[in-house]
Amino acid sequence: MFVEIEDIWVIDEKEVNTLKTQSIKFYDSLKGSSYAERAGFLMKKIEKTLSEILARQGDAVMVNPEEHISVYRENALTLNVVKEDIVEMERLAGRNVGHISPLATWWMIVIIVCFLGVLSLFFFLVWQKKLKQLNVSAEDIAVKEEENPSDTDGANDHSNEPHL
């Protein structure tokens, strides 16, 4: 009969390798972008921190249980910092996706403003044409009324009469 004891006060090496792989993938996706320098710094920091975690963990195997648990707790806190750095790299990669250059943005603005200017000019010209048609119609009506006065006897002229 054997008793097997599993040491639960260690950080799994698979998790460390997964985090390292993630940082490398995010760094690769950010190469050549405006975030490449920041991503490189974070990747180096993550790799260094993960190596330190594995080294401390390897050194703490042969110490007393209290120190072993203490090292695990320190490593767990450090691992949380690494996870935050991974999240930061992920956020940077998310910003980099679909990134439009400022020059392209300004070209879009100029094109939209030009389109609105042409549209405004079109509406102005249509408005002027309609206004000329209305002025011609009003002048024609005034000329026709002068030629054919329908109110010659003043029977319908009530402007001088008092209002009751």
Series of secondary-structure elements, N-terminal to C-terminal:
HHHH
Largest sheet: none
CA distance, first residue to last residue: 125 Å
From the alpha carbons, calculate the radius of gyration and give it in angstroms. Answer: 41 Å
List the helices and strands and how they pair.
Blueprint: H1 13-30, H2 36-59, H3 65-96, H4 102-147
Helix pairs in contact: 1-2, 1-3, 2-3
Note the main attributes of this structure.
164 residues; single chain; mainly alpha
What does this structure look like?
The chain has 164 residues and is mostly helical. It folds into 2 domains: 13-99; 108-147. 73% of the residues lie in helices and 0% in strands. The chain contains 4 helices and no strands. It has helices spanning 13-30, 36-59, 65-96, 102-147. Helix 1 packs parallel to helix 3. The radius of gyration is 41 Å and the shape is rod-shaped.
